[in-house]
Design goal:
Blueprint: E1 2-4, H1 17-25, H2 37-47, E2 51-54, E3 62-67, E4 75-81, E5 101-103, E6 106-108, H3 112-132, E7 138-144, H4 155-165, E8 171-174, E9 186-188, E10 190-191, E11 193-202, E12 206-207, H5 217-230, E13 244-251, E14 259-260, E15 263-272, H6 278-296, E16 299-308, E17 311-312, H7 317-330, E18 335-337, H8 345-348, E19 354-356, E20 370-372, H9 373-390, E21 405-406
Helix pairs in contact: 1-3, 3-9, 5-6, 7-9
Length: 408
């Protein structure tokens, strides 16, 4: 971990978020490789007067940067990641995925949408504020290299570092691509939980011509997976869509057509709303599995992994501040949403109130990932407005404080 104090000098010119995005895309930071992305941001932020600390853990690169006094009650936080998923089959790309090409009004490359543009936009907004003179308050940037991976040593590591160092964000804006069809149409104030259940069915091997002499784990497991997949978990709640369960694998490893195997395995993934916790959902899954085991005589063992609980930042002053800034800059009234997959907001919500806003995510993780150049500038303006409004003299940080509601 390397801690460097802030420097007094200010940069000769504010960073252009489009140029900074292109430079970040050129850093091949496929999880967990740093690829030069955090070193680049460290240089930009240090030159603007931010105190920067590398918080690498478990081979994962992370960057913490602060402008203003430590522990200030009005410490606005941005969270984002510079790691990206692999480009996949490069033959499906019309450009080099790490070239950061600007063409036809678009910036192309892996990470252009998810989420190097957002990182560049909030870094540019924060540096602009530093150059103009920070009002009473502080700005914190928590940038990880492990959001697309296991996410054990990324934002979690930064939050652990902050707790140990007496650092705190009073609110946090995460730059995930939340817009759906038009820039500014959606702001996320929560996320569903995510749980994966790996199921092992154990029966008795036998000849396919004499099924009565075996206990077929394939048929029993198929019954279980169908029962889990066919019965709705719930009808949704006030702020969340219905929970969903998807079967993702079914395997026996059996090459013989005339042999009933002794074992079969399947995996299901559940995205659950605040009607459930991971604990109550695990009980439900085990109960259904036990019922099928009793019906078939095939033992069912479940291994459950939880990626995150559902949570909600209740509508209030901070979400309202973000909504107002988006409406002012994008000319559209955003919808509040809790849809989609998980993000690092699931870790931040235990630290402070958290909201997510970013680009249109149509091409994220796809070949020819790209973003309209105009959207990058618009995103920087939204972030700058949110930051300035939150830290405006006389506003006071108290009304923005609050907690995220987690299902229990």
């Amino acid at each position: 971990m390397t801690d460097r104090p802030a420097v007094a000098a200010r940069p000769a010119a504010p960073p252009d978020p489009v140029a900074l995005t292109a430079a970040l895309v050129r850093c091949p930071s496929v999880t967990p490789a740093e690829g030069g992305a955090l070193a680049l941001l460290d240089g930009v932020l240090s030159a603007a007067g931010f105190a920067c600390t590398r918080v690498d853990r478990g081979g994962v690169p992370n960057l913490f940067a602060r402008l203003g006094p430590r522990g200030h009650p009005r410490s606005f936080g941005f969270n984002g990641h510079t790691d990206v998923v692999p480009p996949g089959d490069r033959g499906l790309w019309s450009v080099d995925p790490f070239a950061g090409v600007v063409r036809d009004g678009m910036l192309w490359g892996r990470g252009a949408v998810d989420m190097k543009s957002a990182v560049a936009a909030f870094v540019a907004a924060a540096v602009d504020l530093a150059r103009a003179g920070l009002p009473d308050g502080a700005v914190i940037l928590a940038i990880t290299g492990d959001e697309e991976g296991p996410a054990r040593d990324g934002t979690r590591a930064i939050l652990d570092h902050m707790a140990a160092a007496g650092e705190r964000m009073s609110v946090c804006l995460v730059g995930e691509p939340t817009s759906v069809a038009r820039f500014g149409d959606t702001v996320k104030i929560g996320r569903r939980g995510s749980l994966t259940a790996r199921i092992a069915a154990s029966g008795v091997q036998g000849h396919a011509a004499y099924p009565e002499r075996a206990r077929n784990p394939v048929a029993a497991l198929a019954r279980l997976v169908d029962r889990l997949s066919s019965a709705p978990l719930d009808a949704g709640t006030a702020r969340f869509d219905p929970s969903t369960l998807a079967a993702t694998t079914f395997d026996t490893g059996n090459p013989a057509a005339n042999v009933i195997p002794s074992a079969a395995r399947a995996t299901v993934n559940v995205r659950f709303n605040d009607r459930w916790t991971s604990a109550t959902l695990a009980v439900h899954l085990r109960d259904v599995a036990a019922a099928v085991a009793a019906e078939t005589g095939v033992a069912m063992a479940l291994e459950i992994e939880v990626a995150g609980e559902s949570f909600l930042t209740p509508p209030g002053p901070f979400p309202d501040l973000v909504l107002a800034a988006v409406a002012a800059e994008a000319g559209i009234a955003p919808a509040l949403s809790t849809s989609g997959g998980t993000s690092d907001a699931r870790f931040v919500k235990d630290h402070c109130p958290v909201v997510e806003f970013g680009l249109v995510g149509a091409t994220l993780h796809a070949a020819d990932e790209r973003v309209e150049v105009a959207q990058i500038g618009a995103l920087r303006r939204v972030y700058a407005r949110v930051l300035a409004d939150y830290l405006a003299p006389g506003r006071g940080g108290g009304p923005m404080e609050g907690t995220c509601a987690t299902a229990s």
